[in-house]
Amino acid sequence: MSTCIIYGSTTGTTEAVANMIAGKLGVADVYDVNSMDADVIANHDVLVLGTSTWGDGDLQDDWYEGVNVLKSADLSGKKVALFGCGDSSAYCDTFCDGMGCLYEELQSSGCEFVGMTDASDYSFSASKAVAGGKFVGLALDEMNESDKTEERINAWVAGLGL
């Protein structure tokens, strides 16, 4: 099964997390969303997509065009794992909403989402990235809980079954 990681990063945090996840998964194909195209999508069975959250719960800017590329591709039968970076203290009411936006945009794409995580280990008040008590992917808070990042990534990667 061919896996790639695609991320959008403004400050470098999501890029650093993408590379950490790549190391844990043993994945060499890591792309900035700006360099993603239809061939990247077609050549991989598993897409690990990462974004930060900006403004009032928005996707990282580079993802707006990236979402269009994903939606124009055939994602039927592909597995999609999401990860998001957010600030659960300063933005507790929009924590990791960017990840929730990706999930919403791709729900009707025919892909299979994998990697939901329990939301009970986090302190936040609201998130578009939570469905049924679980985050739709891996939520990370590098601003306030960076000491938990490696443990969370390890558990998430182990649960992906890739």
Protein model, in words:
The protein is built from 5 helices and 10 strands, in the order E-H-E-H-E-E-H-E-H-E-E-E-E-E-H. By secondary structure, it is α/β, with parallel strands linked by helices. Strands 1, 2, 3, 4, 5, 6 and 10 form a 7-stranded mixed sheet that branches. Strands 7-9-8 form a 3-stranded antiparallel sheet, with no helix packed on it. Helix 1 (13-25) crosses helix 5 (149-160). The chain starts with a strand and ends with a helix.
What is the fold's blueprint, element by element?
Blueprint: E1 3-7, H1 13-25, E2 30-32, H2 38-42, E3 46-54, E4 58-59, H3 63-72, E5 79-85, H4 97-106, E6 112-114, E7 117-118, E8 130-131, E9 134-135, E10 138-140, H5 149-160
Helix pairs in contact: 1-5
| Low-pLDDT sequence parts | none
Q: What value does the Rg take, in angstroms?
A: 14 Å
- Distance N terminus to C terminus? 8 Å
Overall 3D shape: globular
The SS-based structural class is: alpha/beta
**What is the number of helices?**
5
Determine the strand fraction and express it as a percent band: 15-25%
- Give the % helix: 25-40%
Mean pLDDT over the residues? 93
> How many extended strands?
10
Give the topology string: H per helix, E per strand: EHEHEEHEHEEEEEH
Q: The biggest beta sheet, please?
A: 7 strands, mixed
